[in-house]
Recover the amino acids of this structure.
């Protein structure tokens, strides 16, 4: 479990996140949603140990700020919004960097195969020998996810649930790959791990999240089940435009929802 | 609905080698080790005097037939060429490894101790000892003895690297333009101070400075090896421990941290390693440029950027290339000698331009 209590984050003199309290349970996909600039990424960076924070963040019962990098690396893996790369690594070499902490939970001959299996899971079978810089943005994002999966391949290791922290994991993906990636997150949670993901698509959020943390102006506006959080009044106020849940367009106007997909 | 990839029928498979350059890297290590093994006796056998390579080898192995080598040749080989070759190996390895480490630290294939002022800073340290060692810094040289020159160069290099890193890196992101420009400024500053010291130097010091500044392995002695060797050896031994951290750093500082790397410690060790290797090299051989950028770049083309293989292969190739360049430098205009810095620059500078042309789209200034 990752538990936040009264978490605040300052960047320079400016308070970006304040008073956030929620718990992300193992077995759940916890989605962080909210408009641009509401503090979602800053909050996730605090949870991943990147930014200093006030208040308390406990990971597996221990205060995050007292933990060493190699300790947190065994408990959670982080997919950043964007990753820049300075040297000509192949896709396989990038994915293998996920094994740096040595806590994938896979050993022996299977470990040699793990990077390729991770690439298959993100629908990039056959990409191992390509150079990362040659790939499209969406393919690069999936390579990074494969790397992240390798780090905590077993959702539960030594009785300890592990977490995926994903910052907009589907932002540059087509609809098929959005569903594949969210399916991976779902499977990870179903297998006993935990997922905290920043999402922009409220339909995908409603479809895959067990719990939603809705951020607004640096605060957690609401925390709860999708049906309880996604209500007309709240999303209209938070996203500053009139929105209604469950309303279909006028007859004849095309609309496509991820819920209708079969994969 | 959503089918897990791992639920699909599993075909028994073995790891494919696609995208996996580890095997190639291991082969490269063996080939380069053999190449260094060949370059070393070649270096011992080449020079203005014509001591034969076979006799040299036999002598080295201690079973040379009596009289196979004249007393003159023995002195030439054992007291002139052998220390020179040993120093060449140490410095070639040190320059190539410090280039690779620095490029990993700055996440930039253009970082090179010679280009960004670290060598100039180390040079300032060395010149201070040569010029002021008898006067203002006399207590220091009395205390440190033969180590005062390499240690001063190390401090000069360390200070430059620290300032450079502070200026060029903000929030874990290094700006290439800032790094190169800051390097130019730091190099100019060190150059100005060095110039000032040269200005006040007396005739004997000037002669020392001239020989030192040309960049040469000439004048290698066992004493110089004793002075610079331990620092270079320490830096070379520290480098392998940086490999995993530098690999992770190529994804950026925060991702390296997420992967479990103690980023601050890796950076500190990398900076001290670079300063140590460059400082000690500059102290005994002056400025030998371009080894640090040419060698890692060539190797990345062949075995990829994985530092676990890049660092050892860089050490081996750097050592071989410097031995080769040194052999060229003392035979091409025999019996006179060309400073080795001229040879490495003549080869390295065009190569560097070629890198820039190739990377024009990738390295965005």
């Amino acid at each position: 479990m990752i538990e936040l209590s009264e978490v605040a984050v300052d960047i320079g003199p400016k308070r970006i996140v304040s008073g956030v309290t929620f718990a992300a349970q193992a077995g759940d996909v916890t989605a962080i949603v909210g408009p641009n600039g509401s503090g979602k990424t800053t909050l996730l960076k605090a949870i991943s140990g990147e930014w200093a924070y006030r208040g308390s963040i406990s990971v597996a019962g221990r205060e995050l700020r007292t933990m060493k990098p190699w300790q947190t690396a065994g408990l959670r893996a982080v997919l950043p919004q964007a990753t820049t790369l300075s040297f000509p690594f192949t896709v396989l070499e990038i994915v293998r960097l996920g094994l740096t902490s040595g806590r994938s939970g896979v050993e022996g001959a299977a470990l040699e195969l793990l990077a390729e299996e991770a690439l298959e899971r993100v629908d990039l079978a056959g990409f191992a020998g390509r150079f990362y810089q040659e790939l499209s943005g969406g393919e690069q994002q999936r390579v990074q996810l494969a790397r992240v999966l390798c780090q905590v391949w077993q959702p539960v290791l030594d009785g300890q649930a592990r977490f995926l922290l994903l910052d907009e994991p589907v932002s540059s993906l087509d609809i098929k790959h959005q569903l594949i990636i969210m399916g991976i997150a779902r499977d990870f949670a179903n297998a006993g791990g935990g997922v905290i993901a920043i999402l922009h698509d409220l339909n995908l959020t409603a479809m895959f999240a067990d719990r939603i943390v809705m951020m607004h102006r640096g605060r957690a506006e609401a925390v709860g089940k999708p049906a309880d959080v996604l209500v007309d009044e709240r999303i209209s106020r938070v996203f500053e435009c009139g929105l209604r849940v469950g309303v279909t367009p006028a007859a004849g106007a095309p609309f496509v929802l991820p819920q209708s997909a079969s994969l | 609905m959503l089918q897990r990839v791992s639920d699909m029928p599993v075909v028994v498979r073995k790891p494919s080698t696609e995208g996996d350059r580890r095997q190639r890297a291991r082969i490269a290590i063996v080939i380069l080790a053999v190449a260094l093994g060949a370059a070393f006796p070649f270096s011992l056998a080449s020079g203005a005097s014509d001591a034969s390579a076979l006799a040299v080898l036999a002598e080295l192995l201690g079973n040379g037939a009596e009289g196979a080598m004249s007393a003159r040749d023995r002195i030439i080989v054992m007291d002139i060429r052998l220390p020179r070759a040993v120093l060449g190996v140490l410095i070639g390895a040190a320059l190539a490894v410090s280039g690779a480490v620095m490029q990993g630290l700055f996440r930039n294939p253009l970082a090179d101790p010679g280009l960004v002022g670290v060598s100039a800073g180390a040079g300032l340290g060395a010149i201070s000892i040569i010029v002021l060692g008898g006067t203002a810094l006399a207590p220091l040289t009395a205390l440190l003895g033969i180590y005062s020159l390499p240690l001063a160069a190390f401090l000069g290099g360390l200070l430059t690297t620290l300032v450079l890193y502070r200026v060029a890196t903000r929030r874990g992101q290094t700006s290439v333009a800032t790094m190169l420009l800051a390097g130019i400024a730091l190099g100019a500053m060190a150059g100005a101070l060095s110039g000032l010291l040269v200005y006040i130097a007396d005739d004997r010091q000037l002669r020392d400075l001239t020989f030192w500044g040309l960049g040469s392995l000439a004048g290698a002695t066992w004493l110089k090896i004793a002075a610079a060797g331990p620092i270079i050896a320490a830096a070379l031994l520290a480098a392998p421990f940086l490999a995993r951290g530098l690999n992770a750093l190529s994804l950026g500082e925060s991702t390296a941290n997420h992967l479990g790397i103690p980023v601050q410690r890796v950076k500190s060790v990398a900076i001290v390693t670079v300063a140590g290797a460059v400082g000690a090299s500059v102290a005994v051989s002056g400025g030998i440029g371009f080894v640090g950028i040419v060698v890692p770049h060539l190797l990345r083309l062949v075995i990829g950027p994985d530092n676990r293989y890049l660092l050892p292969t860089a050490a081996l190739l750097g050592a071989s290339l410097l031995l080769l360049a040194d052999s060229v430098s003392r035979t091409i205009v025999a019996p006179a000698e060309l400073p080795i810095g001229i040879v490495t620059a003549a080869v390295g500078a065009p190569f560097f331009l070629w890198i820039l042309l190739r990377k024009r789209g990738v390295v965005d200034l």
About this structure: The CA atoms of residues 288 and 341 of chain B lie 5 Å apart. The interface with chain A takes residues 1-6, 13, 15-16, 18-21, 107-109, 244, 247-248, 250-252, 254-255, 257-263, 300, 304-306, 362 of chain B (CB under 8 Å).
